[in-house]
Amino acid sequence: MEKLTSPHVIETLLKKYDLHFNKRFGQNFLIDENIVRKIVMAGEVDTGDLVLEIGSGIGTLTQVLSENAKKVVTVEIDKKLIPVLHETLRECNNVEIIQGDILKTNVRELLGDDIGKLPIKIVANLPYYITTPIIMGFLESDLPIESMTFLIQKEVGERICGGPGTKAYGSLSIVAQFYADIKLDFSVPSHVFIPRPKVDSVVVTFKKLDSPKFKVENKELFLSVVKASFLNRRKTLINGLTMNTIFDKEVLLKVLEECSIAPGIRGETLTGSEFANIANHLNNYIN
User: Fold this and answer.
1) At 36, phi and psi to the nearest 5?
2) How far, in Å, are 53, 153, 155, 204, 269 from residue 184 at the CA level?
3) 283 is in an annotated binding site
4) Residue 96: helix, strand or coil by DSSP?
5) What is the mean pLDDT of the chain?
6) Is the pTM of this model over 0.90?
7) Is 100 annotated as a binding residue?
């Protein structure tokens, strides 16, 4: 098979099928074979795995996934790329090509009888514009996903992996880490893509937990408390919660005292478990 990381091969395929890079779908193709293989290694893909790929592109990552997995189901939204994929993946007998929008796809139905029989891993070079909805959608789903390895925008990756007290830390960090153990695997510079994006990327792996990392009695309340605490980062915790939740300041002050948390600190200094503790105490004040 031809190396799909070759700019010449990419150009030839695009010309043959009269295609252009589609900004609407966030198409940026990898042109570094080493990076492609490092992504598959980070995903720990092996011969017993069922891999779901999101955004097939021209099949660059798909080919290497096919070499390592038992089966690959790859979903591509761009109808114009499907004929290209049938050409570039013609020798990959363990690949199923699906045309569709992953955000509108019933993944449980798509994977069918393979669910429960094979370990499910998701590996993808994600389009920047739908990164967060895809990640959160799979983290919150009840699918038996073993791991997810994504090539994503560097800023988003740093926010997801951020810890308390750091600039990158925020509601996305807490919610993502609520569902999974997360590792930032390695950085990917912008010059290994065609067309070249304006920002660098990172590869991040999520090991989905069997149960959330900390006990939460009311998940919606927990999420609202986290969000409220970061809506105005310069505000103190008590001011953020007073402005952005349904609770009176008197109740909030009482709860923070019960949790041994100073009201004058900023939300960005608290851990996810501390936010869970606040939410669990506040849950007692909901009629």
Assistant:
1) -60, -45
2) 19, 12, 12, 4, 21
3) no
4) strand
5) 94
6) yes
7) no
